[in-house]
Amino acid sequence: MEAIEALLTRRSIRKFTDQPVTDEHVDTILKAAMYAPSAGNTQPWHFVVVRDRELLDMVPEFHPYARMILQSPVAILVCGDRDLQKFDGFWIQDCSAATENLLLAVHGLGLGAVWLGVHPRPERIEGARKLFDLPDNILPLSLIPIGYPDESKPDPERFKPERVHLNKW
Amino acid sequence: MEAIEALLTRRSIRKFTDQPVTDEHVDTILKAAMYAPSAGNTQPWHFVVVRDRELLDMVPEFHPYARMILQSPVAILVCGDRDLQKFDGFWIQDCSAATENLLLAVHGLGLGAVWLGVHPRPERIEGARKLFDLPDNILPLSLIPIGYPDESKPDPERFKPERVHLNKW
Fold first, then answer.
1. Structure ipTM
2. Which of A131, B26, B99, B139 has a CA that sits 20 to 30 A from residue A4's CA?
3. B37 touches chain A (CB under 8 A)
């Protein structure tokens, strides 16, 4: 798939087939995530690849919009590492760029995924911390269920010319 | 350019040739940015396209890492809109995803760019607010100088297997 096309056709996928996702695809997805830009190139991120069915099924207990994870064969938790951060406060942007790269790699491979927000909601952060045994310096940003799409979506036509300003507001 | 290749070869470009960037390319870049995911699909973003040479040249007065903007023919300021946000605190992630889409579109078109962090540094936020006449509800996140690359960079080999965890930390 061509790069611009991938950017314009990626959508949130919440329905998945039974087809498993290979480790090779997961590695490609993780690599793309790690090639995201970060403040001062600090790369302050970690990734928890969750394949354990029991763990996946427990996510909706702390996340209100995560029911689709019951069908996804794998999910990736994107985390910031407070100890790796050199530029205070930028880990959110860095891990968001990594999350977006991850979603685009998923789409480029013919898979589907959805960005479940974790940070800054305290109950979701604590739920993820407990379920995945995260140390105190590890800050969960997003959780991404991944699988083969069992839905397709039309072009949402998101371009809004009124959101563009020339030179000054 | 193929999507996965684009993700793995995008780099921060800080040297630009004199070649101008067309309005058509800028439109494609903005469209890609607006197709980013956002919390609850709120799309809480605005974009200031800066082509005015005088404005571009004043950016280094408030941003310490922005000297390359003296050579770039155009820059885009990515902003969040507090009034468009439905899910408190998610605008940073939303606008970061839009910024990353923007950078990938730039790269996919054969252009180059670099992510200059604005939020959460107060002096950069205020500098951008004054220079670009931003209203109080508009929160500048990042500033992206764009042009034709006058440098090429080798593969940085960023994949770090020690940052990957299976099922639990």
1. 0.98
2. B139
3. yes
Tell me the per-residue pLDDT of A68-113, one tens digit each, with 9 for 90 and over: 999 999 999 999 999 999 888 999 999 999 999 999 999 999 999 9
Q: What's at B41, amino acid-wise?
A: N
Choose among A35, A47, A88: nearest Cβ to B7.
Answer: A35
| A71 touches A147 (CB < 8 A) | yes
A99 touches B: beta carbon within 8 Å = yes
Residue of A nearest to B157 (CA): A35
Task: Report angle CA A60, A120, A126 to the nearest 5 degrees.
Answer: 50
pTM > 0.95: yes or no: yes
For A90, B44, B59, the CA distances from B36, given in Å and listed in that order, are: 19, 11, 26
- According to CATH, the topology of domain B17-150 is NADH Oxidase (3.40.109)
User: What topology is assigned to A15-151 in CATH?
Assistant: NADH Oxidase (3.40.109)
| CB nearest A7 (choices: B8, B93, B105) | B105
**Which ranges in chain B belong to alpha helices (H)?**
3-9, 23-34, 53-58, 91-108, 122-131
